[in-house]
Fold this sequence. Notes:
Order of helices and strands: HEHHEHEHEEHEEHHEHEHEH
Largest sheet: 6 strands, mixed
Number of domains: 3
CATH topology of the largest domain: Rossmann fold
Amino acid sequence: MDSSHFIISEEDWSIHRKGYENQQRYHEKIKKALKQKLPELVSKADIIVKKEKESLLIPVWSLNEYKIRYDRKRNNNIGQGQGDSKKGDIIAKDKTMQQQDKQGHATENLFQQNYYEVKISIAELEELFFEELALPNLKQKKEDKVSTEDMTFHAVHKKGLEGNMDKKRTMLEAYRRNARYGNPSFFPIYVDDVRYKTWNVANHPTTKAVVLAIMDTSGSMDDFKSNIARSFFFWVNRFLNTNYESVELEFIAHHIEASVVDEISFFTKGKGGGTICSSAYKKALELINKNYHPDNYNIYIFHVSDGANLASDNCRCEKLIKELLEYCSLFGYVEVNTKNRHSSLMKIFKERRELNLRSYTVKNESDVYYAMKQFFAIEQYRM
């Protein structure tokens, strides 16, 4: 056959695709199971030190790929339906299992067989976690000069890269040419019929934003509270760096005084001193007035503390929070508090009704996931 010809297979591939389709359904179940485990996975302390390409082994309960199973007891059983069954009907039950259920003696081995480990990379975990998150209230600002590049396929040509072949247009060209010669079919396909997609690099303007991360580093922030704060800001940092190119981050650490620090110092800074939260809010205002005018930036503030603020400082905090809310797209306050009552600082946030103010109380490690959802979840996925 002429080497310039192309071959189209007319074989029915529906049977061959069954395995692939079953595998896709299986992977969807795996994805659903992993999503249910996200609160536990996000709180793992060792994730913070893992690299993006490293993997986690995650135990998943009772998920098996479709396969034929044989009766292990080798009983001579055969059955036939009456034609009136429907999806979800129970056909039969294992009598030995029924007896064990009644006696409460289900063997441990039967349950162990339903466990297996799924290997997932940190990047895949982030993709699952971040797909329902976005910066809220993000608006176009006056002086947005930042743009991102995006490739768009816009035209079709006779020459191009093999990987960019437009199969649909190629077959259409072959059909048209063959039809002109009295043979309306897709075969044969000649080199002159082949079409390739070409692209342009388009620049899309993106709006500017800044996130002010404020962490309480006072003496009352014990190891548990500090780890919660670091975990929350680790995921905030990863989410912003993964999903946004034009978002700036500023890190503020505070005890009785507040200071702007670099990222490494922010995550490794030791604990000590009392707690005056107003010092952090003053520092945030200074940064906004100096570098981030609200006309040019969407401003987000996230503060993590245990709420053990100096009582006499709460009035100053309330005034500064009100002032910051005038500039912010969102002000989020996370309180690490295992008690059954709010701190006096949390009460200030709870009493306010501004739409750009949200708060969340974290009681255990898995609540970090729900705190992220509280602040960043796209509206239909809000907790």
